[in-house]
Design brief:
The chain is built from 13 helices and no strands. With 212 residues, it is mostly helical. Helix 7 crosses helix 8.
Length: 212
């Protein structure tokens, strides 16, 4: 019964992410009856990965990618959903790796799962790079959807750490919308390949009916 107990406890712990709204949307004051949770984000990234793999013919281990996406957010059960505006990448990586040991401590295959998380964070293998790009592009799609629905009002956000960033301010001045600025910011921070860039172009230019 000990194995059964650990299965249920692990499930109950991880599914707490169903009730945690993504920090980025809270920071940008997205106003909507239902805002994306971390668990919904994970599911969205997985479906995006399947579609990109299918349509663009990537020669990768898609099952490994799906597993990697499923587990790489587990650190947030302990440290929370911290954005680039809350913590340095180096500190987040350190705290995240310590956190997953706590989350996985009762699993028999915890070392294998840890290695998947470490591989994702290193972003050196084809699978890790692909999963990371899917993760970031999913946020771009969500930003476009919220923008198209009129859920974002930038007034009163002067104290937002992102808004105070000079590069973000420049993008908000130059781009026609908040979501376009979001997409451009990610384009310049993430090493998207030509296929992901093609999808980002479609997202950016899409009409409301195409993205809702």
């Amino acid at each position: 019964m000990e194995k059964a107990k650990s299965v249920v406890e692990f499930y109950l712990l991880c599914t707490k992410l169903k009730d945690v709204v993504r920090t980025g949307w809270k920071q940008w004051n997205v106003r909507r009856e239902r805002v994306e949770s971390i668990a919904e984000h994970i599911f969205g990234v997985q479906t995006l990965a399947i579609a990109m793999w299918s349509q663009y013919g990537y020669d990768i281990d898609i099952r490994k990618v799906i597993m990697m996406i499923a587990v790489h957010e587990m650190e947030e059960l302990v440290i929370g959903d911290l954005t680039r505006w809350d913590i340095t990448p180096e500190e987040k990586l350190k705290r995240g790796h310590e956190a997953v040991k706590t989350v996985l401590k009762d699993l028999v295959k915890k070392e294998e799962i840890e290695q998947l998380i470490f591989e994702y964070d290193a972003k050196e293998t084809l699978e890790a790079k692909f999963a990371y790009r899917c993760d970031k592009m999913e946020a771009c799609i969500q930003a476009k959807r919220y923008d198209a629905e009129g859920c974002v009002d930038l007034k009163g956000l002067d104290d937002h750490p992102a808004v105070r960033d000079e590069y973000v301010q420049e993008l908000l001045r130059l781009k026609k919308s908040w979501s376009s600025a979001w997409i451009e910011f990610n384009r310049n921070k993430i090493d998207f390949d030509k296929n992901f860039s093609e999808v980002l172009d479609y997202i950016d230019k899409a009409e409301k009916k195409e993205i809702s």
